[in-house]
Design goal:
With 118 residues, the chain is an alpha+beta fold. The protein contains 4 helices and 4 strands; from the N terminus they run H-H-E-E-H-H-E-E. It has a 4-stranded mixed sheet. Helix 1 packs across helix 3 and helix 3 crosses helix 4. It is globular.
């Protein structure tokens, strides 16, 4: 199981480190990073972004959706390579990659819990 987690983590880390060819993806990341700093968006134990506070900002909603769609594709790929479900791949990515990248003051939501601030 540990080697599966490491394989999933390696796949997600490689994808996160790969250069993004589309400027729109960088815009989405910038919007989400700003929203994380403001406490509007946080990381969830399933490996996806979630809303700490409600927002009606359509650009932010689109950015979160874009990033979550990209993550979902990564989790499906990692799951197929490692013989696990996409849900397990997302949870593993959260535990091994996302959680380690949380900055002080950012929000996260552990499995079965409420929003917490790092």
């Amino acid at each position: 199981m540990m080697s599966t987690r490491l394989s999933i983590a390696a796949a997600v880390m490689a994808a996160l480190a790969a250069p993004v060819a589309v400027a729109q993806a960088m815009d989405a990341k910038s919007a989400v990073d700003a929203a994380k700093a403001q406490g509007v968006v946080g990381e969830q134990a399933d490996g996806f972004l979630g809303y700490v506070r409600p927002t009606t900002d359509p650009a932010l909603r689109a950015a979160v959706e874009e990033i979550n769609e990209g993550r979902a594709a990564l989790y499906r790929q990692a799951a197929a390579r490692n013989g696990v479900t996409p849900e397990a791949a997302g949870a593993s990515a959260y535990n091994t990659v996302v959680q380690t990248r949380l900055k002080p003051g950012e929000f996260y939501r552990p499995a079965g819990g409420g929003w917490m601030r790092k």
